[in-house]
Fold this protein.
Amino acid sequence: MNVYYSTDHLQHQPPFEIFDGGDKIPNFEVPERAERILAAVKSAPWANILPPADFGLDPILAVHDRGYIEFLRSAFAEWQARPADEGIEKIALLPATFPPGRWRRTPKSLLGRAGLYMADLAAPITGGTWQASLSSANCALAGASDLLLGEKIAFALCRPPGHHAGKDYCAGYCYINNSAVAANRLSAHGKTAILDIDYHAGNGTQDIFYHRSDVLSISIHADPDFEYPYFAGCADETGEGAGLGFHHNFPLPAGTDSQAYLATLHTALDLISSFDPRFLVIPAGMDLFAGDPLGKFAVTTTGIRQIGHEIASLGLPSLVVMEGGYNNAALGENVLALLQNFANR
Ligand SMILES: [Zn+2]
């Protein structure tokens, strides 16, 4: 199994985030996450670890708004170049103003655009964010290329993650939607399904494919009635226009254990089988694990192994894309548990 990893992720180290309701805390999404997973994967005899090629901006601009991508690329340097704001330490850019829906002009000022293109306070832009995000997307694209060449499985060890990033916004530790960029590339060669198993709803992916019928998107996650991202992920959001019926959310309650999760997974897998895709993309967050500091599910490592087994049993060419997961000590073991059955099939 090819595993795509870039050291560029180390350049992205946001020192803080503004957590639920206002606490300024150390950012949960740290480089240690990817390094732990890399160390675990290195120990597996089936893993072939490779740096990704550079696929350029075209596949990214195929799913993201050009103005947003330009903002992401230039915002930090533009901020640094502003006349020094007395007393402000310019380490990580966050917006101070969020436009209500009716205020959708594109402001000229940097802080105005920060409000337009940044949906929350958990995705600060640092000096290394652009390069890390670009290489993270390249990891997903490299995995997609493997499937196009006939491989049955690839693992994109992406960091930063991507599934909360929408067409024109970053959010929730995510800047470029790696899974969506890869799925869109695959969709040019055949029907593609996305099965998001991160604990949080894949709102960005939902946004990007909401009007399309050639990509089936499914997300199993904590109910947005109590959990981030709050504004998306409900069961009645099923696509619009040509995409109606091609998006499915499965919101689950706090305390969901392996057995209850697997019952929902079976329903999702039936939907994928009926869609009969050529490719499957799996945005995989390990924050569904019982011991995750940001999660409220009770899925065990054994449960994660079984989830991998059930998805692998579909027999589809599959790209697993790393999303969240914040119990750093357990990340490596849980990722290996998920991938094991793909490696063995
Ligand atoms: Zn998550």
Q: What stands out?
A: The chain has one domain: 2-14+27-53+129-344. The radius of gyration is 19 Å. The mean pLDDT is 96.
